[in-house]
Amino acid sequence: MRPRWWSACSRPSPSRSWSWACRWKACARRSTSNAAWSCCRAAARRSRLSVEDAGGSLPLRSEEDIVASRQKVRVLTQQLKFSLVDQTKMVTAASELSRNTVVHGGGGEMRWQLVDDGLRRGLRLLFEDTGPGIPDTRLALTDGWTSGKGMGLGLPGSKRLVHEFELQSVPGQGTRVSILRWK
């Protein structure tokens, strides 16, 4: 049998509004009422995405930038509470598209935007470069086609990992790839 009183920070079962990290003095012995957990709920609200994270961009010029883009996407998907599988799918797609931007496009930029349509939340990523472009986008989305020495699975694989995929390319002007995954 559980005692009637316990520390608010040692709540018996985790929930979205509870954190082991909460050690505020105000969390000392309290009753089992919902009011007892108000400091924990406040901490959870503060850990949600801030307005600054609603959108932004990262340059893609080197291997280090590719790693940084993967790390940023991982953080954003975690903050959006994506499942581990969905996080991995989005990070994998972002990694491949970042690499394409650096290797084939000569560098560019990754932009992100949090999307909310009222019923669901998602993450949109936009990869842009001013490289040579892709002459035949339909062919580029075919498994096995490659313009270099790769296996030709990057673009079609990325398309399978997300809910929305849009590829725009003009030879000589660059490429723009937009992906979106909903939670």
From TrEMBL:
<dbReference type="Pfam" id="PF02518">
    <property type="entry name" value="HATPase_c"/>
</dbReference>
<dbReference type="InterPro" id="IPR036890">
    <property type="entry name" value="HATPase_C_sf"/>
</dbReference>
<feature type="domain" description="Histidine kinase/HSP90-like ATPase">
    <location>
        <begin position="86"/>
        <end position="179"/>
    </location>
</feature>
<protein>
    <submittedName>
        <fullName>Anti-sigma regulatory factor</fullName>
    </submittedName>
</protein>
<dbReference type="InterPro" id="IPR003594">
    <property type="entry name" value="HATPase_dom"/>
</dbReference>
